[in-house]
Amino acid sequence: MYTCKKENSWRDHQAAFLVRQKQRRLRRKSARLAAGIAVTVALVLGTLWLVSQDRSPVRQTQLQAAVPPAPSPPAPNPQLPIARVRELVSQIGLLNADQSHFFIDGPDQSYTLRTQLDQRLQKQLINTLDYLKQLNRGKPQRIAMVAMDGKTGMIRAMAGFDLGDPKANPCTAPSFPAASIIKIVTASAAIDRLGYTASTPLFFNGQKYTLYKRQLKDTRNKYTSRITLAQAFAESINPVFGKIGKNKLGGDILDSYAQAFGFNQTPETDLPMGTGSFAVTDNDFHNAELGCGFNRQTRISPIFGATMVTAVLNQGMGLVPRVVDRIEMADGTRIYTGKPSVFTTPVRPKTAETMMTLMHKTISRGTAKKAFQGYSRDKVLSKLTLGGKTGSLYSTDRTVKYDWFVGFGKDKSTGKALAVSVMVGHRKYIGTRAGTHARKMLKTYFAPRHDSG
Q1: pTM of the predicted structure, to 2 decimals
Q2: Quick one: 390 exposed, middle or buried, by C-beta within 10 A (0-12, 13-18, 19+)?
Q3: How does pLDDT run across 64-73, given as a tens digit for each residue?
Q4: CATH number of the domain within which 313 lies
């Protein structure tokens, strides 16, 4: 019994010792934790006191004196609305201008309107007009010549005259029969909607430049001519495009593509201008006339002809034509800056690429071959990718023959591009053709420029 009691006493003592040791460790740990908390609280309180001192009025005054305030951003210059810009443009002599900037005096303010008219090209066009006006034979009734930057839509030259209305600007008037220029729309629709390519085979009977109902039948016999789409476009073959318009596309599709190119539309531009008019009817033969341009109801302005070409140059995106680079007040404050913008997107990039092929064929082997003869050996033109479309149609009374060329030149190395549009209204005697004027415009614009100083 004694031994057992002694053993139990040792175990109780050992247990009590372990409990006391554990309690001491807990007390030391608690003391360290309390000390840490006290230090943290002291640091936080000290920081808050310092911050309160920096926010005091005296401290704020000292800081403001030491650090100068940031300058306020300048107030933005007012931007004239586009309608007001058109009003100002209508007050200047833009047609046949011999300078690139204009001064306009208003009732409350004077303005300087700056353009990007190319002085060398503009001078060449003015000299051409002076020469034409002196002719007794071959003088046109009216003529319009427009050059537009193919990448920005900026007008680089604009010149012309109308003997019947000396105050008119024939470059912006949407009153001239489009003739075969409309084949740009028909060909684009055929490529885009029907899957045609430049080498798609097509067939026609009869002559190239007539359009009879019998030529619209899908007849093939020993008199049938086989031709590719590129050849038909380059040679402007009416029966082929008449059949595409009537038998393949129809009025609704033709109308949708004409609208997509900008017909019957009004671009948000800075110069007063018209585009073109296009209207379908329930007459199937009229759809053939619309498809090939053999009608006098489809009309365009020369400036719109150049706008159509920009869609080919820019992967299907037609640009808004514009003339104003910037407008400044008398003290030099700029109140308007022109910016490039897209007017329409009528076709896909692949279609635009194919159209460039078709338009180049017009230059190399088609209706503009004579006007551009020898271009591949020319020092200036040989460096360009060239393309175009011609068209011709008499007025209703057959007193004026409208002669068209719309096209482009694109520098092969730099990508710099110019869209050109020329309309000549010949009288009894045919004078200089539109394509010849266009060739001279492209050569003048892209010729090397030498600084005089």
Answers
A1: 0.83
A2: buried
A3: 444 445 555 5
A4: 3.40.710.10
> How far is residue 22's CA from residue 20's CA, in Å, rounded to a whole number?
5
CA dist., res. 290 & res. 279, Å (int): 9
What are the C-alpha distances in Å from 424 to residues 80, 137, 427, 432? 36, 14, 9, 8
Beta bridge partners of 225: 204
| Rounded Cα–Cα distance for residues 265 and 346 (Å) | 13
Which token pair is 108?
Answer: 């409350």
Torsion of CA 435, 134, 172, 421, to 10 degrees: 10
Q: What total number of domains does the chain contain?
A: 1
What is the CB-side half-sphere exposure of residue 249 using CA atoms within 13 A?
A: 36
Give 247-288 pLDDT, tens digit per residue. 999 999 999 999 999 999 999 999 999 999 999 999 999 999
pLDDT digits (tens, 9 = 90+) for 362-412: 999 999 999 999 999 999 999 999 999 999 999 999 999 999 999 999 999
> Does 34 map to a domain?
no
Alpha carbon distances (Å) from 420 to 93, 143, 156, 354, 359: 21, 14, 10, 19, 13
**CA-to-CA separations, 384 to 6, 32, 369, 374, in angstroms, rounded:** 119, 87, 15, 13
Specify if 373 maps to a domain. yes
Residue 23 in domain:
no
Query: Up-side HSE of residue 100: CA atoms within 13 Å toward CB?
Result: 15
- The total of other beta-carbon atoms located within 10 Å of residue 394's CB is 14
Residue 66 lies in a domain: no
Q: Domain limits at 401?
A: 82-446
